[in-house]
């Protein structure tokens, strides 16, 4: 099981999401990504290895560290906006 860390921007993102999306996204982070962090789609961004996981029209952008057994969630936003300003 991987531990989950949240970037400070995630709290701000959560304030702009519908409540049902918040509960579904947080549940998926703990249940799916906590067990299998490679379940998301692999992204290359400025030399960083990131992943994107889909929850309806929203995306969770995160990084997985296998050595530390840790996932760091960077963004949870609508698919139109999530890839801007990572």
Descriptive notes:
The chain is an alpha+beta fold and 86 residues long. It has one domain: RelE-like (YaeB-like fold), CATH 3.30.2310. Helix content is 27%, strand content 40%. The protein contains two helices and five strands; from the N terminus they run E-H-H-E-E-E-E. It has helices spanning 8-15, 19-33, and strands spanning 3-6, 41-45, 48-55, 58-65, 70-78. The chain has a five-stranded mixed β-sheet with strand order 1-5-4-3-2. A hairpin with a 2-residue loop joins strand 2 (41-45) and strand 3. 22% of the residues are buried. The mean pLDDT is 93.
Order of helices and strands: EHHEEEE
Measured distance between first and last alpha carbons: 26 Å
In CATH, the topology is named YaeB-like fold
CATH superfamily: RelE-like
Helix content: 25-40%
Architecture, CATH level 2?
2-Layer Sandwich
pLDDT < 50 runs, ≥5 residues:
none
Q: Structural class of the helix and strand makeup? A: alpha+beta
Q: What tags apply to this protein structure?
A:
single chain, 86 residues, alpha+beta, 27% helix, 40% strand
Write the layout of secondary structure elements.
Elements: E1 3-6, H1 8-15, H2 19-33, E2 41-45, E3 48-55, E4 58-65, E5 70-78
Parallel strand pairs: 1-5
Antiparallel strand pairs: 2-3, 3-4, 4-5
